[in-house]
Amino acid sequence: MTNRDITVKIRQLAYDELSPADAELVEQARQATFRSYAPYSRFRVGAAILLSNGEVITGANQENAAYPSGTCAERSACYYAHARYPEAKFLKIAIAARGTDGEFVDEPAAPCGACRQALLEYETLAGAPVEVLLAGRDKIYVLESVKSTLPLAFDSF
Ligand code: THU
User: Fold this and answer.
1) pLDDT band for position 156 (50/70/90)?
2) 74 carries an active-site annotation
3) Which of 97, 122, 146, 148 has the fewest CB atoms below 10 angstroms from its CB?
4) What is the pLDDT of residues 117-152, one digit of tens each?
5) Which atom, in ligand 1's list, is nearest to the CA of 38?
């Protein structure tokens, strides 16, 4: 028998410890929460993806009366990013959320499993780790890659 451990490295920073470029990406994710359409959950998520061509593509969760038809912020962002700039590589993604009280959440919100799987595909296409910034109100978690959010990922068939 072999025991294997998988370790996820998370750097925790205060907002003012971020580089100006990372703070700007987090800001874009925060602004994207205001473009969320979430009349059902009232949980508003924003994502901002920095691409290798310098563009930042944002997305926000879009809900639907037929609940499963809605989509998360991360998938709206990554699918649009690749549809708009199929040649560009993903470099970094920031994710922010506002709770039902309309305030930015204290604890960083992490992407759901489906979004981790979707993002992983673009990390694989990029051929290099895509850094993930999860933004709470003042607490920012920085993960070195999407893969680190989904250690035993399905990645081929
Ligand atoms: N949501 C996201 O946008 N991203 C996630 O990774 C988790 C959940 C959205 C989906 C739904 O509109 C709302 O948050 C509540 O689940």
Assistant:
1) confident
2) yes
3) 148
4) 999 999 999 999 999 999 999 999 999 999 999 999
5) 12
